[in-house]
Amino acid sequence: MKQRGFTLIELIIVIVILGILAVTAAPKFIDIQSDARGATLQGVKASIETAISGVYGKSLIAGNQGSASGATPAPTITVNGQTISLNYGYPTGTAAQWADLLELNIDEFKTIFLSAGVDTNNSGTADIGATEGALVIYPAGYTAPSADTSSAGNDQCFVYYSNELTTTGSKPSIGVVDTEC
Q1: Average pLDDT over residues 114-134
Q2: I need a surface site. Which of 18, 76, 101, 135 has the fewest CB within 10 A?
Q3: Which residue from 178, 128, 142 is spatially nearest to 157, judged by alpha carbons?
Q4: Other beta carbons less than 10 A from residue 175's beta carbon
Q5: Cβ(134)–Cβ(160) below 8 Å
């Protein structure tokens, strides 16, 4: 009885095919951590959108959705025992208030309120939050973004919220920058 096996040529072809598959698939698996960070930031953005919808609903009930942040008396609303300042019905609270409002795990995320705004498009100047400031949430271990994020570093991985509204009926700016996650 004659035994048959793979020839050397067949084995080499299989090894080459496996090598091509490995080279093609490896980058997709290596970048999973970055994709996970980006997806997490999208989740935080959705949490912010949900929170501001709830706050705006409460401000509608209170009837102060038409008041600017500088009005007298200053428009506020109480959420979970905290008094939150409003600008046309949307929150302008501090970073600590937002961390509580969103129930963020402080070990995983850092929150800051940038009074000078934030550069969301890597242009070198603040394009969001220049007048009212911007809330920025970024992963622990990353550099806090600033008004100028055009310099090298890992400061292009964050969620931002800016309430620079000047009229009733507008919505705040919310977005994700994940080019360096």
Answers
A1: 78
A2: 18
A3: 178
A4: 17
A5: yes
Coarse DSSP helix, strand, coil percentages of the chain, rounded to the nearest 5 percent? 35, 20, 45
Statement: residue 100 has pLDDT above 80:
no
The more confidently predicted of residues 44 and 108 is: 44
Q: How far apart are CA 42 and CA 6, in angstroms?
A: 50
Q: Distances from the Cα of 39 to the Cαs of 26, 32, 48, 94, 158, in angstroms? A: 20, 10, 14, 25, 11
Task: Give me the mean pLDDT over the 118-147 stretch.
Answer: 81
Unique residue bearing structure tokens 């995320």: 109
pLDDT higher than threshold 80 for residue 3 = no
Q: Looking at the DSSP assignment, which residues form a beta bridge with residue 47?
A: none
Whole-structure pTM value: 0.77
Q: What is the Cα–Cα distance from 56 to 91, expressed in whole angstroms?
A: 8
Share above pLDDT 90 across residues of the chain, in percent, rounded to a whole number: 16
Q: Which residue has the tokens 């509608």?
A: 60
Peptide bond into 73 cis (omega under 30): yes
